[in-house]
């Protein structure tokens, strides 16, 4: 096997610790399929990064924690790009991109530099932490502004950065990780409910605009899933109601027909499906991965 032109243990580009090597997934131009994954430091975003990498997709893992991202990159398998001979083959590493996408005034410049370094992407996974909980009337107007910046505006900047490259490549995948609240508002999540609905309308509109270029835009709606975000919400609810976190979680489980919380990997599997060739004729759709909790179809 030839030595990759990228040093595997250099900086935040990716580490090698005797990890597995997987064959590269290639795009229509023969290049390695590349994905930008938001919120990859932990939870669902981290699971998505792992899932895509296991399928031979090169991952740009975006998050705020440098330590968490480096740990993730060190866990991901290397991507083998086969050449005409063994000597011409090379290994590709993944990329950690430490960035707070909610700081939209800085985001466009950071992304331009990233594109110069890493090139275009084939898959764009829009994912970031949700706003804090609370009744809608108790929210300060600034909370709505901040939430819109962190979600709607950040998504717009990411798409304006990466969609041109997708058009040039003849296609792409955009997957937004939202919430079942876009179909059924969740009590106590006033700001989040409003923000998620806005992003849903934006994504549905975008789907129609970019479909002629072979780009799909879909949404994954997680139900109650075992993440740090869910732990924060259960803690806030328990303090407000004066009950234990365990009771809150039991109520959530009881409201879910499958009788359990979801796993981040189960959400990641749905994202990977939308990112795959199998979903090439599906766009503008929102898929609930919630154990049957939603009462709507």
Tell me what you see in this structure.
This protein has a 7-stranded parallel beta sheet, sandwiched between helices. It has helices spanning 43-54, 66-75, 104-118, 141-169, 190-210, 228-241, 245-254, 264-275; strands spanning 21-23, 34-37, 58-63, 78-81, 90-92, 95-98, 123-126, 172-177, 215-222, 286-289. It has 297 residues and is an alpha/beta fold. It has 8 helices and 10 strands. The longest helix is centred in the middle third of the chain and has 29 residues, at 141-169. Strand 8, helix 5 and strand 9 (215-222) form a beta-alpha-beta unit. It has a single domain (21-223, 262-289), classed as NAD(P)-binding Rossmann-like Domain (Rossmann fold).
Summarize the entry for a quick read:
By secondary structure, this protein is an alpha/beta fold. The chain is built from eight helices and ten strands.
What count of structural domains?
1
Task: Kindly report how far apart the N and C termini lie.
Answer: 51 Å
**What level of helicity do the residues show?**
40-55%
The tally of helices reads 8
CATH class: Alpha Beta
User: How do the helices and strands follow one another from N- to C-terminus?
Assistant: EEHEHEEEHEHEHEHHHE
